[in-house]
Amino acid sequence: MTEFSRIEEFIQSYADNISKVLGLDVTILDEQGIRVSGTGYYQDLIGLPAPEGSFFRMILQTGQPGMIFDMKKNESECGNCKFLQQCRELATIGFPVHKREKTVGVIGIIGFSPEQKEKMLHHSEKWMPFLQHTSSLIEHKLLELDAEREKSCNIQEEMPQASVHPVYFAQLIGAETGLRDVIAKAKKVTNSISTVLIRGESGTGKELLAKAIHCESARSRQPFVAVNCAAIPETLLESELFGYEGGAFTGSRREGKPGKFELAHKGTIFLDEVGDIPLSLQPKLLRVLQEKTVDRVGGVKTLGVDVRVIAATHRDLESMVREGTFREDLYYRLNVIPLRLKPLRERTEDIALYLQHFLYRYGTLLQKGKLELEAQLVQRLRAYEWPGNIRQLENAVEYMVNMAEGQVIGNEELPEYLLFEDESSTAGSDLGLEKLVAEYERSILQRYLNAGNYGQDKAAIANELRISLSTLYRKMEKYGLEKG
Ligand SMILES: Nc1ncnc2c1ncn2[C@@H]1O[C@H](COP(=O)(O)OP(=O)(O)OP(=O)(O)O)[C@@H](O)[C@H]1O
After folding, report:
1. What is the pLDDT of residue 161?
2. CA distance 5 to 7
3. Which of 14, 329, 401, 428 could form an SS bridge with 362, CB 3.0 to 4.6 Å?
4. pLDDT tens by residue, 156-205
5. Helices of type H across 234-350
6. CATH for 391
């Protein structure tokens, strides 16, 4: 069994998509050079091996992409192919699929007519990022399956119900250059001990990136401990982070309790919403970062900890430093390797990719088969602002897949808050897009806060809206909302 035999259907759907988008035939080969999928001419060749000495076999060996535009003359690429004389291909592009650096397959694009060859000559360079992305999606799919099997990465969360699945860089979808640069930088520092500070709005993938850094590092079998500094009440945060000795305060456990830094010993601690850490605790955090030692609350001993720190925040720390609400020395200590994730509205070119990705994921998960979105809907969703970023888009797709009755999703399946019918009422408004989106967001939150079925439970509301509790509080503060 090869890597690809586990995901044949998935691979065929990608071959179909590439073929549709480029208007050319596509074939995908596994690591043994067997065609696992194909369109047009190649459909009948599925299951058969590519000829020995052929161009695609060379790509499997070298792991490098390549293109040829005249088979007969390309002695180096096709010279050893025993079908060279019969070959009808006028142009061919081959792109490798890797799994953790190993070449496990090839995506091939073929032109048979002079027009197709011309098109490939002109556009092949532009297609490379698209092929790179498709290749990453296949890798991601393979890793996801591995992850389900292995559950190898030791991710621990403060919330027991939270995900414990390992995360790899290949799971970070997106072809936009800025995102690829951030991922490339993150890859460089996986095994460094330097502190990473991830910035970005809610739902842009800060936590996912932090987990990927941990899971791809040499520390992956040690704990990844996530702490949301905004979700823990100020009075408890110190003992949560640094632990306490027995009898340190009324109600404390007799035997004491280790803090998150101790629990993350030899692994990684993820300090989410680090900008919300109270000023009073900042000196203590700075000391831990500098000296790698922890003093439990009420304790006398100093404990050494070997912890990689990854911090994240949506806050403007520079302004906070200027205003005196965040210590400058701590800011510099945290901001050693800064990584910034852009909001989705600043990389709209990736929206269609995310739609496709989540459509496939939820279509499979909810056993709805192969689904697609009406073309006009994709246009509209691309134009939407996505204030909740990728998380919001993922939830919207999950909703739509649940609602889907046929294989094509249209306006009727949109979640209520995304219904574009309001366009008419807001058309001509002079509010501007940002304000209109904010107005939408405010009204959604207001509706949830007023709904009787949530009682006083803001955590349930945050959960339902798939945002963190701290994000909910922040947004409530922003819009001046209180539970109605
Ligand atoms: N590049 C990406 N590719 C695929 N999925 C992504 C990507 N970025 C984020 N997601 C998905 O979006 C959701 C939100 O991601 P994540 O929790 O990492 O965001 P965050 O920035 O930490 O949000 P918050 O600040 O609200 O905690 C998750 O379901 C995650 O899997």
Report:
1. 33
2. 5
3. 401
4. 654 333 345 678 888 888 888 899 999 999 999 999 999 999 999 999 99
5. 234-242, 260-263, 282-291, 317-323, 328-334
6. 1.10.8.60
Which tokens belong to 150? 């292995």
Rg of the chain, C-alpha, whole Å: 26
- Is there an atom of ligand 1 within 6 Å of 208 CB? yes
Average pLDDT over residues 237-258: 78
Give the pLDDT confidence score for residue 422 in this predicted structure. Answer: 44
In the reported structure, the alpha carbon of residue 311 is separated from the centroid of ligand 1 by a whole-number distance in angstroms of 15
Residue 347 within a domain: no
Cα 387 to ligand 1 centroid, rounded to whole Å: 13
Q: Within this chain, do residues 42 and 139 fall inside the same structural domain, yes or no?
A: yes
Whose tokens are 């405010």? That residue is: 442
Cα-to-centroid distance, 204 and ligand 1 (Å): 5
324 with 459, same domain: the answer is no
Q: Tell the burial category of 206 from Cβ atoms under 10 Å away from its Cβ (0-12, 13-18, 19+).
A: buried
Mean pLDDT score across all residues of the chain? 85
Convert the pLDDT of each residue in 325-374 to its tens digit.
999 999 999 999 999 999 999 999 899 989 988 998 888 888 888 899 99
Domain stops at, among 113, 148, 183: 148
Give the chain's domain count.
4
Q: Is residue 435, in this structure, part of any structural domain at all?
A: yes
Structural domain includes residue 156: no
How do beta strands 155-157 and 224-228 pair? parallel
233-243 residue pLDDT tens: 888 899 999 99
On whether both 143 and 206 belong to a single domain, the answer is no
CB of 264 within 6 A of ligand 1: the answer is no
Q: What is the span of the domain harbouring residue 442?
A: 426-479
Q: Is the CB of 387 under 6 A from ligand 1?
A: no
- Residues paired with residue 269 on neighbouring β-strands, in sequence order: 225, 309
Query: Is the same domain home to 321 and 373?
Result: no
150: confidence class by pLDDT, cuts 50, 70, 90 = low
pLDDT at position 163 is: 42
What are residue 70's phi and psi, to 5 degrees? -155, 95
Residues 307 and 450 in one domain: no
What pLDDT shows up at residue 456?
A: 63
Q: Which atom of ligand 1 is nearest to the CA of 204?
A: 21
Same domain, yes or no: 406 and 431: no
What type of residue sits at position 198? I
Residue 421: what pLDDT? 44
Helix, strand, coil tally for the chain in percent (to 5): 50, 15, 35
